[in-house]
């Protein structure tokens, strides 16, 4: 019987495909067809930690349109990823293949795990999992593939009791329908964009004070890459991996609200393949939010 492997994110899926190819190569000196093996790995691309979730699993996936509109609003992300995931999960429900869900402790992985358990809760005998550490997917693709290859024997059935619990937790997350979902102490809680905005301003203020991210030749405030700012948000308790599209969107929203001042070329850089810089300086916060310190920082936008 065919086994379908699910994993969150295309980079992780590519590494898993490479690992599966390596595992199937020694078969009487023949190599397994690459297209066949690649077709057994599905990348779940939708980052479920942010955006609306309600009705996402209902008949016809009416919530998919809401999520697609959310990603379109952010920019830099294909809104088709929502529908692609819905179609893939619907196909799994209709099939009878064994399913292995690979997951790390990352919030997006944990939500994907819960969604899959919910969608396949009536066929628990099909569900298996491989638990990974975050480090298993780090580094160059070849290194990640080697680590995933070593984990292939770790695939184990998920108990009916655990599937039921994870499916219930997914339903709770959908019902809460928060703006974002944080994974702390093995529990999901809902958060707001205001929570994330506060962390962004605090991170920029701290960077301006310590200057640890200053780049060679930079003058004045330090330069921060988007992934550096995202990592700082995780360290400050964001509760999920904050991707570049979300960081840029919140910076634009903060600037529009008058809480940040962005250098004009940020908007051009968002549409340009060339690397560019964006300056950020906090303004006085609105009365609705506690007073935040003035800070200055810069962002270098990755390709």
TrEMBL record:
Pfam families: DUF1835, DUF3658
Domain DUF3658: 153-266
Domain DUF1835, residue spans: 4-131
Record protein name field: DUF1835 domain-containing protein
Organism (species): Paraburkholderia sacchari
